[in-house]
Amino acid sequence: MIEQVCNVCGDSLADPVFSTVGEKSITSLCELVPTASHVFFCRRCGHVLTSPMKNIEAYYSEDYQILIDSEEEDQLVSFPDGSKIFRFELQVDTIFDKMDIPLNAKVLDYGCAKSTTLRKMCERRTDLKPYLFDVSENYLPFWDKFADSENWAVFDPKPDWKGNLDVVTSFFSLEHVSEPVAMMKQVHALLKDQGFFYCIVPNTFTNTADFVVADHVNHFSVLSIHALLVRTGFEVLEIDQDVHYGAFVIMAKKVDSANLDYDFPSSESLASAVNELSEFWSGISRKIEEFEQQNDLEGAVAIYGSGFYGTYIASCLTDMEKVVAFVDQNPFRQGLKLFGKDIVSPEKLPVETRVMYVGLNPTIARESIRSVGCLADRNISYCYL
Ligand SMILES: [Zn+2]
């Protein structure tokens, strides 16, 4: 039995609801790490958490370089109706829509990485005073472009910020924090009375990949967001599940004291949603395992898709030696390597390929493969997730 305590309410947790296959799991940057990952559900506060990776401080300080290559890289956010928008633009639009930020406000972006969102906010609102904090020095060149070095800190926030900040923001950062209670107590101390906390985290219930990402320690639910904030001295003003598809947008206000007598609502209906997620991913893992055993003698293997699902398949296979290539339609991925294997266009799929794992979102996978003309005449067995 693996012992794990809930990092939101402190309760001891029962057995994991999900574990990866073997000693392998994948990170949010689609890297394979040589360690199993276990997901737990806390029935008391409704939190879902993944055991923190070992050496997590070193990982963020040295290895974790999200979109570090240039300022302009961004991620497109898709909506169910097919429309797309760049993530940073959406984040700026949303915070200005939701929050009346006072004139000349001091705004700290906590765990900010390059802090592209706050930089773009300051371009639109030149009165705002940007403050920056993260646990890595990798981002200093980006901070230097728009903030005063007096107002940034690495590893520990500056003591004179205490009680001085109007707003603290956290954009896709809190899900990585192994001790969210300690972080929220610190945010509480940094804010002025009645100061605002504004936060975006993935919603694992609508963004299912989040559930199996090894470095996302926290998979928040509405219940666990409430529990965390109320017990660290905040009043929850809003939890919006719609404006950012696949994420929670949270707005809270600092109040005088933490409410440790918080009455936890029932997490019964949440338990079945967590169970569904666990079944979904366990089912995929089982399917890959069985297919690999059945097709052991068939010859060369390829994985279609070099994104999250393709990487997940690679993490489940026991024999990567047989994999001759990843296939990807995206010209920006072709020519790169993943786990030492070439990423090629469908036209360049090696002729000896007999088995193909389709690493695409299961809802669109069959249709996508059917639409690739050059695969139609090939003698290949497909494994759909
Ligand atoms: Zn809990």
Automatic annotation (TrEMBL):
Asked whether the UniProt record includes Methyltransferase among its keywords, one would answer yes
Q: Does the keyword S-adenosyl-L-methionine apply?
A: no
One Pfam family name is: Methyltransf_23
Write down the InterPro entries for this protein, in alphabetical order: SAM-dependent_MTases_sf
GO MF annotation list: methyltransferase activity
**Gene Ontology BP terms:** methylation
Sorted alphabetically, which keywords does the UniProt record give? Methyltransferase, Transferase
Residue runs in coiled coils: none
PANTHER family from the entry?
Answer: METHYLTRANSFERASE TYPE 11, TRANS-ACONITATE 2-METHYLTRANSFERASE-RELATED
The protein's name is Methyltransferase domain protein
